[in-house]
Amino acid sequence: MSGRDAMDHGVRLHDGRVFTVKAGETLLEAALRCGLRVPHNCRVGACATCRCKVVSGRARSLVDRAYALPQEELGNAVFLACQTLPLSDLVVDWTLQPGEPQLPPGDDPES
Ligand code: FES
Fold first, then answer.
1. Atom of ligand 1 at shortest range from CA of 83
2. Can you tell me the distance from the alpha carbon of 49 to that of 39, in angstroms, rounded to the nearest whole number?
């Protein structure tokens, strides 16, 4: 097994919108697939542009977050979305870029 979760998980953002992370997808991959314009840059866990806070639920990082995040954020459930796999449904506080398309809660265009 590759270590990636074999289940889909729902993610609710801080503003109430929801999307589904398919099995094997990172948070960032799923958000972009669903049309959310979320902050990101390198996609390899180096720039920390995609950082978000997991408010509830369980997630696993594919990389050692200490390379990109300060110690206080590591202890405060901050993850790099491009390197994070949900292990359960999540509530995520993720500051999204202005002007993004509105996705009604529960509306996943890929499902
Ligand atoms: S996009 Fe650079 S760390 Fe995630």
1. 4
2. 6
Question: 9-93 has which CATH code?
Answer: 3.10.20.30
Ligand 1 atom showing the smallest separation from residue 82 Cα = 4
> What is the C-alpha separation between 69 and 10, in angstroms, rounded?
25
For residue 59, give the DSSP letter.
E
What predicted TM-score, i.e. pTM, was given to this entire model?
Answer: 0.81
Centroid of ligand 1 to alpha carbon of 51 (angstroms)? 7
Domain locations in the chain? 9-93
Nearest CA to ligand 1 atom 3: 45
The number of CA neighbours under 13 Å toward the Cβ of 33 is 16
The pLDDT assigned to 104 comes to 46
In the beta sheet, which residues pair with residue 90? Answer: 11
For the segment 55-76, the average pLDDT, to the nearest whole number, is: 90
Residues within a 6 A CB radius of ligand 1: 40-43, 45-50, 68, 80, 82
